[in-house]
Specification:
The protein has about 130 residues and is mainly alpha-helical. It has two domains: about 20-90; about 90-128, no CATH class. It has helices spanning about 20-35, 50-90, 105-110, 115-125; strands spanning about 5, 10. Strands 1-2 form a two-stranded antiparallel sheet. A hairpin with a 2-residue loop joins β1 (about 5) and β2 (about 10). The longest helix is centred in the middle third of the chain and has 37 residues, at about 50-90. It is elongated and about 60 Å long. The protein starts with a strand and ends with a helix.
């Protein structure tokens, strides 16, 4: 379903109920995960007297924690972007094609700025 201009300008795309609360809840969850993840992302102390394999394991755990932290930070930025789109009234519209994003997609991934077709195209271009 495509929305066209109505008597008061372009109509808003359909949205899951209370999307702002859902996004703020996800934002709070991610902030808590980042807080808990902070210590794990610290490098192991060189002053500790531990074996070489234990140190290697600690470095590997640190790298995994850093990867998880980057993933959470990316997701947090996407959620905050979605909150901006909600306040601007553009939430639910694809950032590329400007068509309405399917409500089922928004229910599954509310922070997404893209419809399925544009997301697929972006991913295909990234693989080249």
């Amino acid at each position: 379903m495509q929305d066209g201009p109505g008597p008061r300008g372009p109509s808003s795309p359909p949205q899951p109920p209370d999307i702002g609360a859902v996004l703020r809840g996800r934002e709070a969850e991610i902030l808590e995960q980042l807080r808990r993840n902070a210590a794990a992302a610290e490098p192991p102390s060189l002053d500790e007297e531990i074996g070489r394999l234990t140190r290697m394991d600690a470095l590997q755990q640190q790298q995994l924690a850093l990867y998880a932290r980057r993933r959470l930070e990316t997701q947090l930025a996407q959620i905050r972007g979605a909150l901006v789109r909600v306040s601007e009234g553009s939430f639910g519209r694809c950032a590329l094609c400007k068509q309405a994003i399917d409500v089922r997609r928004l229910e599954m991934v509310p922070e997404t700025p893209f419809c399925v077709a544009c997301q697929t195209r972006l991913e295909d271009e990234g693989r080249r």
